[in-house]
Amino acid sequence: MSSVTGVSAVDELPDGDHPVGGLTSTGRVGDRLFGGAAQGAGLLVIALVTLIGVFLVAQAVPALAKDQASFLTSRDWSPGGDAPRFGIVELLWTTVSASVIAMVIAVPVGVAVALFITQYAPAWLKRPAASLVDLLAAVPSIVYGLWGALTFRAVVKPVEDGLQTAFGWFPLFSRTGISGGTIFFIGIVLFIMVLPIVTALSREVFDHTPTTHKEGALALGATKWEMIRTTVLPFGRPGVISAAMLALGRALGETIAVTFLVSTLAPGSPWTFSLFNGGETFASRIANNAAEFDSPQKTGAYIAAGLVLFLLTFVVNAIARVVIERRKAFTE
Amino acid sequence: MRITRSSAVGAVAIVGALALSACGSDNTSTGGSGSTGSATAAAGDCFSGQLDAEGSTAQKNAIEQAIKNFQQSCADATINYNATGSGAGIKQFTGGNVKFAGSDSALKPDEQTAATATCGSPAWDIPMVAGPIAVVYNVKGVDKLVLNADVMAKIFQGAITTWDDPAIKALNSGATLPSTAIKVFFRSDDSGTTENFTKYLHTVAPTSWTATPAKKWAGKGEGKEKSAGVATAVAQTDGGITYAELSYAQQNKLAMAQVDTGSGTPVELTGESAGKAIAVAKQSGEGNDLALKLDYATKEAGAYPIVLVTYEIVCSKYKDAATGKNVKAFLTSFASDSTQQSLASLGYAPLPTEVATKVKTAIAAIS
Fold it and tell me: What string of H, E and C letters represents the secondary structure of A70-138?
């Protein structure tokens, strides 16, 4: 009998000290090689992430030390010269709000598409539908940028105007003068880009729902939707959360499409919480100014911005891991 | 899915072939050795090999045409021009990564020092392409628009917000202007075009445009990347206005404003009107360093004042003689009358004769 976490109960003997077969059977050469390789790969990945983190911190700290303005709350960005002032609050707001818009739309839509493909679609439709959605992931980022700028903008603009007219009193939807790449527009393009990630992973998870659970629910008189709600969705929740976190990572770090579409704000623009404002994300600002890395101080300022993005993704992933682990404890 | 051994081997072979085909053979020989046997008249020495340059987006179309013309006579030569912006081009040049840079403004003193150190000899600014900066707009029903520096400065500062503002109406007595909101677009990247445009505004209308001219925009509006970005944005937005090189205006079929310089009649932007403004410019560099000082406030009849001159930043004496020869060959072709005339159809102004003579002398002195 095995539990969901994959630990076999057979291995637990009354005295748990000795493995089955005694101390002599520590495995053959193949076992040791493979175990070593797997361990090495795991260590390599951990080392890579740590080294990237160390690189970011080492480059960013000297620039941060010289920063005259508060890094987390200032809106200035002039990292050059003797008295650099730079702060990331605008970047943080734009990045987070565009990503949140993308996730708020992508997760329900992605889960719905995955449910359709696994539960509702007839057998001949499953594979083609899955491939079609996966094709979205194959489109290069820059093509999304071009398409967004040339074609999609015209579709979204009436929606934005409508929202601004109807809900202009709400701070998130208030009118701004920006007509190009608003946070809302970028959020929608990001949603299309992360949709295949959410769908593909959710699909895998929903496919592996134990048939006994599903049939049990149906036998107890549940309708199809009730069966999905009580068996497939709870079973798949950790997988969906993982998928959402991967998608969020992509949305936070998406560079080329955003750089293409974003409308930078003129210096000195007033602060507004509106989703129809322009502004740069971390990735697009670094990409836009990549030609400016002429002094360690300027480079350090941009790397500090990158470091914030790195930490943000790290924290979000950690929270997701905690949520998944807590859920797993209750599914035994 | 059952994976048999043969299908696994086949899969590895296909993936390997695809991966290895990505490692194509690059022609990485930099700079040929002297001329090939088929040198032709206008192009000077031909070379076979590669020449790397980087810089201004304003002269991108011009350089591409010049490269095409050069390759008609010298088919083996490859010249790569990467249009990343004047700032990036100068940095790459002073870093020694490219052989010459395209820039919308002459080298500043600290850039000159860095370039001299890299070259081992003074760096020269050689004007090659005169690009007028058009003020493009997209207003439904308005085909002809006249603006002057003061009104332009106010528009780009956000002081004038609608197209039917009295200040604009005063300059356009015949036209009916709608009450659409003005949407300003600016270059979000460091741009020589921004610098030249703001130099014009600051020189002619210093009370309305108080910010120091710089590659970074200091006015109001929405930022878009590169000339292509701002031109596309205006084409798609009713009420949009921006500044961009003439070639981008022509490509996107955008209407251009005429400039009232105080000379009597508003000046329309054409190759000759831009050329007239360059002809009255003075040389601010010494000897063969042909940095020009443009007179933005010129009241010369029929002279369009908002022009930018793009320079090719070269070493006067290259450390590698072959590179010097190749740069000289290409620039000689670039400065030739036939190439300069072919640029006119792309939206550039050919160099006026006096300037062209000085340019040819300077190029001949490169080694």
Answer: CCCCCCCEECCCCCCEECCHHHHHHHHHHHHHHHHHHHHHHHHHHHHHHHHCCHHHHHHHHHHHHHHHH
Pairing of the two strands B100-103 and B49-55:
parallel
Q: Say how far apart CA A172 and CA A252 lie, in whole Å.
A: 20
Euclidean distance between CA atoms B225 and A63, whole angstroms: 26
| B44 backbone φψ class: left, alpha, beta (φ>0; ψ -120 to 50) | left
Q: How far apart are CA B225 and CA A142, in angstroms?
A: 14
Residues of B with CB under 8 A from a CB of A: 84-85, 87-88, 91, 158, 181, 183-186, 188-190, 216-225, 229, 232-233, 236-237, 240
Q: Half-sphere exposure (CA, 13 Å, Cβ side) for A167?
A: 11
- pLDDT at residue B20, rounded to an integer: 67
A87, β-bridge pairs = none
Residue pair B183/A179 in contact (Cβ under 8 Å)? The answer is: yes
Q: Tell me the whole-structure pTM to 2 decimals.
A: 0.74
Cβ–Cβ below 8 Å for B223 and A265: yes
3 state DSSP class of A280: coil
Of A199, A319, A316, A181, whose CA–CA distance to A253 is shortest? Answer: A316
Interface of A with B (CB under 8 A): 149-150, 153-154, 177-180, 259-260, 263-269, 278, 288-289, 291-292, 294
Which residue type sits at A230?
A: T
Dig out the tokens for A322 from the structure.
């905690």
Of B283, B347, B305, nearest to B129 by C-alpha is B347
Chain A: give the shortest CA distance to residue B111, in Å. 12
| Record: contact A294-B91, CB cut-off 8 A | yes
Residue range B199-241, pLDDT digits in tens: 999 999 999 999 898 888 888 889 998 888 888 889 888 899 9
| Contacts with B216 from chain A: Cβ below 8 Å | 267
Helix, strand, or coil (residue A13)? coil
Kindly give, in sequence order, each residue whose CB lies less than 8 Å from that of residue B17, ignoring residues fewer than 6 positions away. none
Domain A77-331 is found in CATH 3.40.50.620? no
Among B92, B222, B236, B241, the residue to mutate for chain A (most A Cβ within 10 A): B222
| Phi, psi at B35, each rounded to 5° | -95, 150
Contact A266 B220 (CB under 8 A): yes
pLDDT in tens, A203-220: 999 999 999 999 999 999
ipTM of the modeled complex: 0.71
